[in-house]
Amino acid sequence: MLSSDVASRELQRLASPPAHWRHLRVLVAEDHSTYRAMMGWFLHKLGLTHTLVADGRSALVAVARKRFDLVISDCQMPVMDGYAMARAIRRHEQALGHGRVPIIALTGNMLHDDPQRCRDAGMDAWLLKPLTLAQLHELLSRWLPGPIHVQRPGAPATRASTWPTRADLIQMFGSGQVVDQMLAGLLVEARADCSALAHARMILDAALTEQCLHRLVGSLAFLGGTELEARGIALIHEIRTQGMLLSCVHLDVFMRDLTAYLTYLSVL
To answer: Number of folded domains in the chain?
Structure first.
């Protein structure tokens, strides 16, 4: 048995997770409602923002809507099991060149859900039920990312080689005054369209997303963002042929790069 001092130190360690954990997000896919609620309580105690879903399909919807720093998934679930979910996440990462999010298998039967099957599906580690808070803390300490450097608010976006300079725009439109007037109006419209696009993406509305992208493509053509313009057109086609769910990862990258471009233009 642990001495009272050792037990006290252990409780203090669990009650004081690393400060940067409050900026991280964990996704849990678990079909058993009681166990799902318990995992939510554990993660809350550890100061982690988390999303709880009941099957692999719902997990993919969650991943399409936001980025997670860790995924914990039961292996056997209805609708879509943990293996199919993990393979789908790895395909999305590979297609976009994204970093590998850790996926941890949660199982009550290692005879059926053997480690090799987990590895083959793209999972990184596995835990046996029932799981304790201390075991979860140890897992998170190993697999969650460490503190990251956060860019200063208002720091200028890095200019891509294809983005126009102020001199380029003056040459294109004739004078600095014309450029300033044009940018002021177009940036207001583009930012409004970006906000509408973010809303459409969150509710997975394909028609509204296409409308926003059409308007933004027009603005980008005017602002000289030829590479982003081409990507916007390709996204419209992708959404029409593959649907919103499979297009959301590409859309997220586009929105991130577009925001950086508009920030760059605003300080020209």
So the answer is: 2
Structure tokens at 187: 């940036």
Backbone angles phi, psi at 26, to 5 degrees: -120, 135
The backbone region for 177, taken as left when phi is positive above 0, alpha when psi lies in -120 to 50, beta otherwise, is alpha
Rounded Cα distance between 81 and 30, Å, is 10
> Do 47 and 112 belong to one domain?
yes
pLDDT tens-digit profile of 190-220? Answer: 888 988 998 898 888 999 999 999 888 877 7
Q: Which two tokens stand for residue 80?
A: 């879509």
The verdict on pTM exceeding 0.90 is no
What angle in degrees, to the nearest 10, is found between the helix axes of 244-266 and 206-223?
30
C-alpha to C-alpha distance for 164 and 74, rounded to whole angstroms: 49
Relative orientation angle of helices 244-266 and 56-65, to the nearest 10 degrees: 10
Q: What is the pLDDT of residues 135-191, one digit of tens each?
A: 888 888 888 887 754 344 444 455 565 677 888 777 767 788 878 887 888 888 888
Residues 129 and 191 in one domain: no
Residue 163: which residues within 8 A CB-CB, separation 6 or more?
224, 225, 261, 264
What range defines the domain where residue 207 resides? Answer: 166-266
Two tokens, residue 227 = 């590479």
We report the CATH number of the domain holding residue 184 as: 1.20.120
Do 109 and 183 reside in the same domain of the chain?
A: no
Query: Any bridge partners for residue 50, and if so which?
Result: 26
- How many other CB atoms are found less than 10 A from the CB of residue 118? 23
Contact 239, 197 (CB under 8 A): no
User: How far is 59 from 50, CA to CA, in rounded Å?
Assistant: 12
Contact 78, 45 (CB under 8 A): no
Is residue 53 a part of any domain in this protein?
Answer: yes
